[in-house]
Write a structure and sequence with these properties.
Blueprint: H1 2-20, H2 22-35, H3 39-49, H4 51-62, H5 66-84, H6 88-100, H7 109-118, H8 126-140, H9 142-147
Helix pairs in contact: 2-3, 2-4, 3-4, 5-6, 5-7, 7-8
Length: 148
């Protein structure tokens, strides 16, 4: 009898957990599918955003609009190349991920403004981020922009 109660509690816990995290899993999976990356990278980004901003981000992704999904892809790009590891190899790798997803490799001011909003808890320097955007676009996108 005790085992049945314990098993029932475990089942209720698992079902409750799945229901409570379904929005997050759906958002993470859809972005991971678009960019063909591991969901763990997106979950890491959500943790860095903080609770409030990550919930806003998840709601934005779950709206199902293509424009928001593209914005999220650029946020992941900025997170992985500016915040986490800004070396040439990393930038080239994630630039290719944007291209594979059918997105323009160019970063715009709206992308950096969104990054400043969603990563507000990290106190990013807006000037450094703008410099990164300019340097990235000048170095990596001159020929791509001509062919795009």
């Amino acid at each position: 009898m005790t085992w049945i109660i314990i098993a029932a509690l475990i089942v209720v816990f698992i079902i409750g957990y799945r229901i409570l995290t379904s929005d997050t899993r759906k958002a993470v999976d859809s972005l991971a599918h678009l960019l063909k990356v591991k969901p763990m990278l997106i979950e890491s980004m959500l943790q860095e955003m903080g609770n409030h901003n990550s919930q806003t981000f998840i709601r934005m992704l779950n709206n199902g609009y293509t424009e928001e999904m593209h914005q999220a892809a650029y946020l992941l790009f900025i997170y992985l190349t500016f915040i986490k590891q800004a070396d040439d190899e990393q930038i080239g790798l994630w630039r290719e991920a944007l291209l594979r997803a059918g997105l323009s490799p160019e970063l715009h001011a709206e992308h950096t403004e969104a990054a400043l909003f969603y990563f507000a808890d990290l106190d990013l320097d807006a000037f450094e981020l703008a410099q990164f955007r300019r340097a990235y676009n000048e170095r990596y996108n001159r020929e791509a922009l001509a062919n795009w």
